[in-house]
TrEMBL record:
Pfam families: Abhydrolase_8 (PF06259). Coiled coil: none annotated. Residues 306-369 form the DUF1023 domain. This is DUF1023 domain-containing protein.
């Protein structure tokens, strides 16, 4: 159903091991309490039997004896059940880890084979190099370039008019798998041996991963394609009074709308109950999908942020936070849509601030290793292709507490959507945020507490606009 939420840690199963462990802990506490109660009932029975003053209450001896025995039995049962639940939780966690490891290994091997195959194709095509050069020369002619543009525009238009081709959970999952295996494809294409590829890849040392692939794309794109530039960030409009968001839906509505010439960042300042300053930062998504524009929230920043490089959008957000008074170590809560969520995740990963919460909407941030101390919630739509571009979620000690809340926004006929970007629009994510607010899932308690801890009373909000500074 379109309005059905799925809450998970992003793994292969829907079993919440955290709830299992919490239940086991509660059973252990009950077992200890029941033992104390049984002991107290036993002492009370002894008093009625041996104390002269308690003799009038001797009628209660059978009941106290039964209560003591029942409580002791309940304590023993709770202790046994707690052990069983603990073992089940461990088994599910171990099974999940093994399943993810096996799937990752299969994806890596498949990617390596694809890369090797492509390399062999290129080598086999070397005799055709003169013909390819001639083709490239012809393609440079204005008439041919116009023809290619018309064909490309027709293809793009077809995708827009038929979102069912891309707005499909199965297709999104396939893209996520391909992106996750991109580093293995790259190593296979480069001629790296399989043992070396396994050692360097995610299954080994992790020296080569999605960040490496994004970095390679920046280099291959050429000097003028994805070149980062200095960024100028300035205040936009007047400082206005505001109050902390009362819900996730309200926080989602405060993320600046994407648009050329519009502000991309909003910073709110509050006073925390501890007396310290507390900030909420809202970051917009990609504005420009081309190159050589004034917008730092562009494809160059997308690639740079994935590559963990100096993205213009990242620099702009840090500049805006500094101008708003945010100092290293201050309490911050981060909210971002699309590229804005990726930037927010990189800020949380840096640990430069005391990040309390990180909420992303449709963001390719799954492989950013955010510290587990951060309350991290990723809101995703099953038909949204953008989160899949971040690959499979990071595994290991960091990132395990990343909670994924997803839903399908289309029914069985996604082609009925207005456009191909419907699954990625912030309007749709605001509706999903409202459903999250109404959810009774206990795993979302941390998010509720984080929202309530942003601050209290009146605060000050300031919007910021960033532009690239291009020479010449």
């Amino acid at each position: 159903m379109p309005d059905a939420l799925t809450v998970s840690t992003g793994g292969l199963t829907s079993v919440s091991t955290e709830e299992f462990f919490a239940f086991a802990s509660a059973l252990d506490v009950f077992a200890a309490d029941a033992t104390d109660w049984a002991h107290a009932a036993s002492i009370a029975r002894c008093l009625t039997e041996w104390s002269t003053d308690a003799a009038p209450y001797g009628f209660a001896e059978p009941a106290l004896l039964q209560a003591s025995r029942s409580l002791a039995e309940a304590s023993e049962c709770a202790e046994r059940l707690g052990s069983v639940v603990q073992e089940a939780a461990n088994a599910y966690a171990d099974g999940e880890a093994r399943s993810r490891e096996a799937l990752g290994a299969m994806q890596a091997f498949a990617g390596f084979l694809v890369g090797t195959y492509l390399r062999n194709l290129v080598i086999g095509a070397l005799p055709l190099l003169p013909g390819l050069i001639l083709t490239a020369t012809v393609m440079k002619q204005p008439a041919m370039r116009r023809a290619v543009a018309v064909l490309g525009g027709g293809l793009a238009g077809g995708l827009v008019q038929n979102p069912g081709l891309t707005a499909n959970p199965a297709f999104v999952g396939m893209v996520r798998d391909v992106v996750s295996a991109a580093d293995d494809i790259l190593m296979g294409f480069s001629g790296t041996s399989l043992p070396a590829a396994r050692f360097l890849g995610d299954e080994g040392t992790g020296l080569v991963g999605l960040e490496t692939v994004a970095g390679a794309a920046i280099i291959l794109g050429g000097r003028h394609a994805f070149t980062e530039t200095p960024v100028r960030t300035s205040r936009h409009g007047e400082v206005r009074e505001t109050r902390p968001p009362a819900s996730l839906a309200e926080a989602a509505r405060r993320i600046p709308p994407t648009g050329v010439g519009k502000p991309q960042i909003t910073v709110e300042k509050y006073r925390h109950s501890s007396g310290a300053d507390s900030y909420a930062v809202y970051i917009a998504g990609t504005t420009d999908f081309g190159g050589n524009s004034a917008e730092p929230f562009d494809m160059a920043s997308n690639l740079a942020a994935v590559a963990d490089s100096d993205a213009g959008a990242y620099t702009a957000t840090l500049d805006a936070m500094e101008q708003a008074g945010v100092q290293p170590g201050d309490r911050v809560s981060l909210f971002g849509h699309s590229q804005g969520g990726l930037v927010a995740a990189r800020i949380a990963e840096s640990e430069s601030f005391d990040t309390q919460a990180l909420v992303t909407f449709g963001s390719p941030s799954g492989q950013v290793a955010v510290p587990d101390s951060v309350t991290q919630v990723a809101v995703e739509h099953a038909e949204d292709l953008v989160p899949a571009l971040g690959g499979e979620p990071v595994d290991g000690a960091e990132g395990r507490d990343r909670l994924v809340v997803s839903r399908a926004i289309f029914d069985d006929t996604p082609s009925g959507a207005d456009d191909a970007g419907a699954a990625h629009s912030m309007d749709g994510y605001e509706a999903t945020a409202a459903l999250i607010d109404d959810s009774t899932d206990s795993r979302l308690t941390g998010l509720t507490e984080a929202l309530a801890g942003i601050g209290s009373g009146a605060g000050a909000a300031q919007a910021f606009r960033a532009e690239r500074v291009r020479s010449g």
